[in-house]
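Table S4 entry, DUF3108 domain-containing protein.
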Amino acid sequence: MLCLGILCCVRLSADDEFCGIRNYSFQPGESITYNVFYNVAGIYVNAGTATFVTALEQLNNRPVYHVTGTGTSNSSYDWIFKVRDKYESFIDTANMQPLKFIRNVNEGGYKKYENISFNQQANTAITSGGVFKVPQCVQDVLSSLYYARNIDFNKYKVDDKIPFSMFLDNEVYSLYIRYLGKDVVKTKYGKFNTFKFKPLLLKGTIFQGGEKMTVWVTDDANHIPVRVESPIVVGSVKVDMMQYRNLRHPLSSMISWK
């Protein structure tokens, strides 16, 4: 699903500065909704919606952020490419590392269900396919997004790579985010001061692999993605933040409304 498969990783050592990163960017009850626009012959049409919601819960007597991401194509475009995706991540509040991940997707007829339990002490991931050794500070697809929102981009220079590890489909992937600097972007919602970067993508049913996607996140303490652009297997997509609720900080990056 767009916005859910975009992040990446390089193996981290135990003393890496991003192991145990703390959450300063979001709070329980936050909800962010995006419109997904598909480029058809140079014209963008509203093809779907993605929503991300956070809650504070308990998992095995540990406080976790339960993050749910859903993606749905509009019914009028289902005949072109039907999407019904749901991702869930249960993230340890103490260190922003996932304890459990669930993926239930239907993308153009491709269906996949995945349920992963992470053991931080043993550095393992347990799935229906077995027990897999993972590096410290490993992330899942959804926790990666919230991990990335807590990166201090002011510490980096243009073209720097920011690495972290991700486990998906019974494999560990070594990918990164390439920081592109500050930028002003005008979206369907408004005009924002932003940080701009390119994540290294895994090739999938929708996206091409490599540094094809560009992401803009707010240059404020929330670090909300407000614009995502990427080519896809056929054509291209543009994703704009259209609605938000219960942000942790004021949206001070916003320059103007629409």
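DSSP finds two helices and 15 strands in the chain.
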